[in-house]
Amino acid sequence: MRELKLKRVYRHFKGDYYLTEDVATDSESGKAMVIYRKLYGDGSLWVRPLEMFMKEVDHAKYPDCKQKYRFELQEIESVAKR
Fold this sequence. Notes:
Blueprint: E1 9-12, E2 17-25, E3 32-38, E4 45-49, H1 50-54, E5 71-73
Antiparallel strand pairs: 1-2, 1-5, 2-3, 3-4
């Protein structure tokens, strides 16, 4: 499995951007859950299983999708060159 990087920006395959905040453990299932923030609209927090966050796009369902993974890490350069 790919490594999740915290406090980094990821692009969802449908186009929006999110900031990974942390990883928590679901009290019922014991599964690792990614806590992430929308970088648009109200900036609300969301949660989804780590396994689902990191998995590949279902290209049978979304055949026109160019992105390999549901969420892909974005390398954003500083405009101030710092």
